[in-house]
Amino acid sequence: MLPNMKPSLIALLVVSSQAQAAGFQLAEQSATGMGRAFAGEAAIADNASVLSRNAAAMTRFDSTAFSGGVIYIHPDVNIEGTTRVPTAMGPVSLDASAHDIAGDAWVPNAYLIMPLNDQWRLGLAATSYYGLGVQMPDNYNAGHFGNVSDIKTMDLGVSLAYRINEMWSLGAGLSAIHGEGEVGGTFPSNNKIAKHLKGDGWALGWNMGALLELSESTRLGLSYRHDVNLTLSGDAIGTDLQGRTFTDTGSLDLPLPATAELALFHQLTPALALHSSINWTNWSKFVQLESELDHYGTMHIKDEHWNDSWRYALGLTYRLDPKWQLRSGIAYDSSPVPADRRTISIPDSDRIWYSAGVGYQWDSKLSLDVGVTLLDGKKVDVTETMQLKPGVPQTTSSFQGTSEGDAWLAGLQLNYLL
């Protein structure tokens, strides 16, 4: 009975992977950074949003700094293919194409940096590092592989930074992470619920960073965010092997991986700055998914066995005059999902970021930033099989096709120095 819920829970990790960073990450923590493809983000520290990447860089601010904004995400994710399903008359092939299955989203953020004295800085942050979802069309023929998925997270953080000397600064922070998700699956060719789970939960995480200021024009940033297991608890609906609907309560541990960034910033001329980043994500932590239902015990959902992923970004900032600043960047984001483990619910692929941005200095205290990014995802093959009744080979269903996802991102941000 329990394995019938497998596809819906896997779908929790869905199409954000096609629209944003690798796996199911969100990289969009500021419009400023987005305008340069987040190249050099842990070292630049041009406004308070650096708090999302490196707490140590808060020592760059000698007065209270605030940054807040929102990023709009418009993904275009499409699946083409067929599913083969068992029937009383034998297996049949059905169209399983689905278009525009990822919904638009708004990702807000806010950051505050406050000097405590000459050496100490306090920071407060509210942002998101994981999220988005998918909705398959009604009567989707491959709904048993996952029909609806939605996950939202909010990261509320507090950080401290300490300046050791003119060159070195260290920082660390704690985060309270709230997540809520809804996932579901339907029987082939109809909307009858085969499985459904809706829940939420909290987790505690930590991060640390260092900033090395080699000169007035060159600095290096290194940051690390520890992995977290986010437990989502709530209500479940399923169907047993006799076709009877049951309800239960339970929980699912969702692994949020460790991440690290090495960033370089160099002011080449008074007008031109170059910056770059290398990001690592410990997706090899994502080995399997298991759910604990209160009345039906442990349910093994799926083996994943992802690989660690890497992201490489280059960017530049050009100051036209004291008020206007131009930004641009390009990044390559590698997928952690091995080719033989892609699914409809996690159709991850490598992607390239093309970014541009503009900053306007309204006065000595207030500035505005705008950023735009095109994410170009590769078209990849997806092959997936499952047994509708585990252990009964005659009930095997399969999907074979392709997945492709692009996205447009646009962000606006206000920065203020008190």
Automatic annotation (TrEMBL):
This entry's Gene Ontology molecular function terms read:
long-chain fatty acid transporting porin activity
The primary location reported for this protein is membrane
Q: Which InterPro entries match?
A: OMPP1/FadL/TodX
Q: Name one GO cellular component term.
A: cell outer membrane
Keyword Disulfide bond listed? The answer is no
Which locations, inside or outside the cell, does it occupy? Cell outer membrane
Coiled coil segments of this chain: none
Name the domain of life this protein comes from. Bacteria
Q: How does it sit in the membrane?
A: Multi-pass membrane protein
Q: Which residues form the signal peptide?
A: 1-21
Q: Which UniProt keywords apply?
A: Cell outer membrane, Membrane, Signal, Transmembrane, Transmembrane beta strand
The record's PANTHER family line, in alphabetical order, gives: OUTER MEMBRANE PROTEIN NMB0088-RELATED
Q: Which family does it belong to?
A: Belongs to the OmpP1/FadL family.
> What protein am I looking at?
Long-chain fatty acid transporter
